[in-house]
Structures
1.
Amino acid sequence: MKEPYYMKELMNTPRDIARELARKYSTMTHDELDILESVLVPMKFAKGEAILKDGDVCKNIYYIDKGLIRQYYFKNGKDMTEHLGADRSIFMCIESLFKEIPSHLQVDALETSIIYALPKKRLEQVALHNVNIQILYRKILEESLILSQVHADLVRFESASNRYKRMSKLMPQVILRAPLLYIASYLQMTPETLSRVRATTLLE
């Protein structure tokens, strides 16, 4: 029998991920962890590989075990970064997920990434019969909505310098690992402005 890739690469097992999710979002019994583990679908993406393409319907909530992803869209011929996510974070294309319509957002792996999908339909089925999984589901959605609101407020109300400082606190691994071009796009500033802001921040 062929070993799963997470065994070969000494990555977390689905059980480990179920425990991580329970610690972060909801307390669970042993039986509830069994149920949550059964929902998880392990996936691996190479650097540069598409996780979700334009026109795909998003059917999953995704949890990044190890790796880095970029969520983006095209506007006036330019690609715009909507979200950057690193280890132990959640991402999804929320409108496509809930309306079951094709997404205009695309998601690529910026590093080799180990990701666990939580299929929405399966998660909702088990949540109907389990309060703690309902809580986990709700808290994941709340976190996603809050993160979107934080990003929207950053680009609407904060100066370029404050945008970068806030992102450094909220997403330190993304700041360290993502290409500057994508960080600048996420913060809605030019790469030149980002370079100046970074230089000034380092001097403070």
2.
Amino acid sequence: MKLTIGICDDDSVHVDLIKSYIESMNIPCKVDYILAYSGEELLEQLNKNIVDIVFLDIEMKTLNGIETGKKIREFTEDTIIVYLTGYRHYAVEAFEIESFHYLIKPIMETKFVKLMERILTRIEEKKTFRDREKILSIKTRDHLIQLQYDTIYYFEKYFRKLKVHTSDKTIEFYGSMNDLLEEIDTSYFIRCHQSYIVNKHKIRGIQGNTIVLDRAENFCIPISRTYKKEIMSIFYAKLFS
């Protein structure tokens, strides 16, 4: 997972402070920062980037944080907005634009870290929900079948066909591994062998050159040397996240 975090405050000290708090948490994913010192500057940068979280000061010159937040909401409902201010009387306006939280300055590290942990949990929950809702359409000889990503364990090359193994059935269809990789979301699936593609979220463990999938029968998938390093990296990231 990768996060893009925006921090906007007309006081550079507060921008640096928030960034230092986040960095001290050692979040187990890549974090990109958008640092801005006015609402206008933040909006200009957001036009070119997708941002997951924005920490936004309310009292700024020209375009204040409330108006900036309203403009953010015009082009995204998913960004988590957290307001920073020294005054409580903006709370109603802040929550009207569906902000996640409202921090009163001075911002203490312990309080900030607890809030950030809640935000990361919310992001992970939303990602899991979106992934479960993703659908793969498969055309067999007689039917068009739609499968939710979350039900798929792995794909297997079988002569000129492919097999998709789900939680309750196996389906054969004509296709190639390369065409399949172009169609599926590779942030969810990964190739581990010339003949296999696995669901990253179903990986339970690694034993030598095999992947143990999270199934009752502990089904094992081979890993070829070409893909071993990437598979191990994904497994450790999952293990320590």
3.
Amino acid sequence: MSESGPGTQFTLVGDGGPVHDDRLAQLYSYPAVLERSWVRSNFIASLDGAATADGRSGGLGGSGDRHLFSMLRQLADVVVVGAGTARVENYGGVHLDAGPRRARRGRGQAEVPPVALVTRSGRLDAGMRLFTDSDVTPLVLTCATSLPATADRLGEHAEVLDCSAHDPDAVDLDTALNQLAARGLRRVLTEGGPTLHGTFVQRGLLDELCLTVSPMMVGGQARRITTGPVGSRVAMRRAHLLTDPDGYLYTRYLRDAELRGQAASSE
């Protein structure tokens, strides 16, 4: 991988040395052996906790955040996102250059990770950018009730999967992860939105959080990175902390049990 370009010079806090792309990939590598799905989330928030500025997360970002955003996608098997976030952020598919594609082949991954869209209603327009601007076929994770109409509406633009469990009117995330794992997609990256993120947290399915702290205040009524009807406390431990010349902080937190497991495996 190439070194980080201008505006993306990362420094590892506590170490002080520069962090280039090869080291960045090591810092954010998934566990070497996965017997189940590993769910990583990637979010950005302001200093006062806002997940968006002017309604979009992109308003908080800088060049370093965009670079890390791309790197995390390069390492994942699949990018999972809620339908609402895909609309608001105008999601397209993942596009990678020759170098990242070659690195993915070396890790035994497909050249490009698909985007998997989570939607209970399945009311998606085949003209959405995700379906018209993608190098690989997107996945749609929906429920049994919505599946026939959704598959008919999207046709060949997407592969539509039934991710219901006991309730045919709901998407069950455990079932969704099992569907993805059956396709060899265990390195999961979710980019939100906050409601989907909250469900991963509430169900105990989130293994790690990569949170960029943007050096700005937003105020107003902006949402947090996690929302939902039910609160839950999940103990997390810091894996590392990066910064850049623009004052952004790039944090990686692991679920407490996972951090202990990684420490034990490295001894």
4.
Amino acid sequence: MSERPLDANSVAVIGAGAFGTALAVAALQAGGPTPRRVILLSRRESQVEDFKTSGRNEDALPGIALPEGLIVTAEPDAIEQAGTVLLAVPSQAQGEMARALLPLIARRADVVVCAKGLERETGRLLTEVVGEQLHRDDIAVLSGPGFAADIARGLPTAMTLAAASAEQAHAIATRLSGPTFRLYASTDRVGVQLGGALKNVLAIACGIIEGAGLGESARAAMISRGLAEMSRLVTARGGVADTVRGLSGLGDLVLTGTSHQSRNLRYGIALGRGGAAREAAGRELVEGALAASVAAQDAAARGIDMPITQAVAAIIDGGFDIRAAVDALMSRPITQE
């Protein structure tokens, strides 16, 4: 990582998709009266030119005008002095992107993972993956209930910022919070990340229930029992059980498990209506589909009972049909809640 001077008031967002663009807008608005330099780094020069011409990201956030002052570029060198670096690329690209940007990220910059998932090959947390590439153990993570379009439009949104220390978490949360974008500080990076990854799996389950016409009572039962599964894995991996009842667990699950803006919910609905996994995904990246099998394997290896997660993974893999999954879940032994 570079030794160049650090601009503490500069924020770099890596990834010009919907969420990255929305975070860049929020970061610029969070600056208040103090001038702030916010860089949105895109992979494509053509996208940068479209931004400059239209003032919008029509591919990812159609119809939403971007604020003046946002620096959109395809030149990686632009991030060199950024005091805060937000990695807003898909979960499986986080490590690769961190490795590519290693020479450009200032050593004292706060680096924040802004994706929800687990490393496919190992099941590791994304902060561990990115930390390994950057040779650091203080990688922070942003997670919680926030749709990109809502954030970019300035609609009230609250999320969680977890870091290695309370001081670091509070500092980053304060730096990025604005009039309509509020971050709550946490030190439970394990619980926040597992909540973000598993809520996608459970949102697929909510979609399957909706698509198969199983009723709202089934959805409510799935959400409550899904939280119990989430809590078991969080505690087994060293996190705090209460975290799953906060924004990054319950809050995010309620949002993605009930709103049709959620691609994971839409994917589940397509599965519930009888679609095959590949057809249901279409061209969308469905993070929950990747996380389901990873989480199911991790739970099995640890001896943790996660029947909903395992059922979703089996349905996606084609080893279970919907009716067989429901029968298996409903015929489980009666236990104490």
